[in-house]
Each structure stands twice: as structure tokens, then as C-alpha cells.
Amino acid sequence: MNASPVVADKKLEQLFGLTDRVAVITGGAGLLGTKHAEAIAFAGGIPVLLDLPEAQPGKKAEMLCRNFRCKAIGIEVDISDENSVTRARDQIFNQYSTLDILINNAANNPKMEATPGKQWSRLENFSLEIWDADLRVGLTGAFLCSRVFGSEMAKRGRGVILNVASDLALIGPDQRLYRKPGVPDLEQPVKPVTYSVVKSGLVGLTRYLATYWAHAGVRVNCISPGGVYNGQPDEFVSKLQALIPMGRMAHVDEYQGALLFLCSDASSYMTGSNLVVDGGRTCW
Ligand SMILES: NC(=O)c1ccc[n+]([C@@H]2O[C@H](COP(=O)([O-])OP(=O)(O)OC[C@H]3O[C@@H](n4cnc5c(N)ncnc54)[C@H](O)[C@@H]3O)[C@@H](O)[C@H]2O)c1
Predict the structure, then answer these.
(1) For the chain, counts of helices (H) and of strands (E)
(2) What is the whole-number distance in angstroms between the Cα of residue 166 and the centre of ligand 1?
(3) Are 79 and 141 in contact (CB under 8 A)?
(4) Single pTM value for the model
(5) Atom 21 in ligand 1: which residue has the minimum CA distance?
(6) pLDDT tens, 90-120?
(7) Are 77 and 84 a contacting pair, CB within 8 Å?
(8) Whose CA is nearest to atom 1 of ligand 1?
(9) 148-204 pLDDT, tens per residue?
(10) Which runs of consecutive H residues, i.e. helices, occur in 178-273?
(11) Of 173, 242, 266, 281, which alpha carbon lies 20 to 30 A from 152's?
(12) Residue nearest ligand 1's atom 39 by CA
């Protein structure tokens, strides 16, 4: 209580620091995964990008090393395959002997139909194959990575898991956003059911793991971002913006602050929470 300002300042300065902490980011070579990795590198941590071969996680890690003068590696992993995940764990421990942070960020992000006349995303037509594939990456992958990497953290008595959900973990999709003029109702594209199910499931996984590992020193939280502007059609953007109190979509780097907060000691008394960063969309 009587800490001198100098001591207090030093502690505050270190709150968001991640010096030498090894952070696994699934889907780390994707749009937001790359931004998460930059934030980790900026705070002094070591990003480990897990992604499918076609996303070139090795190349993305090399770019990070160059731009941030940090250590970083990329590993080709299919997070829905248990052997692939355990091989990645072994490689990380061989290289760094530790693991401090897991960010469950990968998802299939099922797209709406682009081809007129194909209504595969509508509930009536939604195939079991696509359902299984989406859940396998978004939920099973997050479970497997949490089990494999989280168990190592629990053994060491320290660690952080962050699940990346969405504003659609809290609200139903507004299917009017995706409507195309002149297309009959039953042929309109819709946001696939798996998106809502995966994202809501991640909030449940967060609460389960948070209570399960609270006494083992592993904190588990969730972040629910709103939509990021990424060159979507103007009509979609203006319809979505009208649903957001702040009147705009997020810039791609606007989750970095929240991510650093949740991955660092700045959130040391927080577990089992879902931090909503959505420009206010879910409060309207
Ligand atoms: N972009 C947004 O507007 C937005 C909004 C809210 C939530 N989110 C969530 O943020 C996360 C990142 O989204 P994004 O926009 O960067 O998407 P993205 O498609 O750019 O990135 C997802 C990454 O996951 C990887 N991936 C897919 N299957 C995998 C597997 N089996 N094993 C390993 N990696 C796999 C992909 O290769 C890709 O690099 C997702 O969970 C998404 O649902 C995104």
C-alpha cells in the first residue's frame, strides 16, 4: 500500500509486458491471427503461428521476425488432427522449453453463397458434411489445443488461454445483412448456422476451462470481436454500420489492445470472462 511512485510505475509499466513468453496462435497466418502475433511480438513475446500449409505460417513468421526483430516461428498444423497438434507441442518444447499463452483463433469462417441458385448455407440445405467440418476446426480444434497445450501450462502452474469468439456468440445473425435484391426468400444467402454454434460453444468452453484450471494457475478468457472491415461490398458495409452504435466496422488492428490486456498480467484477476469489443453492436 505504501509503495513509492517509482515502484508503482515500474509495476504498471510491466503489466502489459510479455517478455520471452511463448504464445501459440492458431490460425496465426490469417487476417486477425497476424495482428494478434504482431501484438505479442510488440510486447516482447515469442509468437508461434500454427496454420494450414496453404496459409504459409513459416513465411508469415519470417516477416514478423524481420519487422519486429523478434523470435517467431510458424508451424504447419491442422488443429483438427490430434497427432498434428501433439507434434507441434513437441516442436515448441524442443525449441523453447516452455509455453505460456494459447490463442484459439482458427476458424473455418464459412462464407455465404457467391453463386446464384446454390443455397447450401440455408438451414434446410445445410449438409452434415459442412456442419462437421466447421465444428471440427472451430470447436474440436479449440478443445484439442486447449487439452494439449493447456495441460502443459497446468503442469507448470501458469498460463493463459484466450478463445476468439464473435459478437455472434451473443446475438443471432441479422440475416437481412446478407439479402440480395431480386432473389426469392427461400434462395437468399444466409450466415451459416455453424458460425453461431461454434462461437457460442467457445464461450461455454471458456467457462468450463476457467473453472477447471483456476487452481492450476491457468486463466481462460474469451474475446468477442465485431466485424472487421476487409473490403466487403459497400451495400453490406452500410447495412452493418447502421446496426453499430459507433457507426463503423472495426479496423483490423483494433483488437490488439484487448488481446494484450487478456494475454498479459494486466488481466491477472480475470478468468472465465467474455470481453465484447464490437463498437456497441450487442448493446443495441
Ligand atoms: N474478421 C472478422 O470480421 C471477425 C469478426 C469476429 C470474429 N472473428 C474471428 O476471428 C478469428 C480470425 O478470423 P480471421 O478474420 O482472421 O479469419 P481468417 O480466415 O483470415 O483466418 C483463419 C485462419 O484459420 C486457419 N485455419 C483454418 N482451419 C485450420 C485448421 N484446421 N488448422 C489450423 N489452422 C486453420 C486458416 O488457414 C486461416 O489462416 C476467427 O475465429 C473468426 O471467426 C473474425
Answers:
(1) 10, 7
(2) 11
(3) yes
(4) 0.96
(5) 30
(6) 999 999 999 999 999 999 987 776 666 678 8
(7) yes
(8) 228
(9) 999 999 999 999 999 999 999 999 999 999 999 999 999 999 999 999 999 999 999
(10) 193-213, 234-241, 256-263
(11) 266
(12) 30
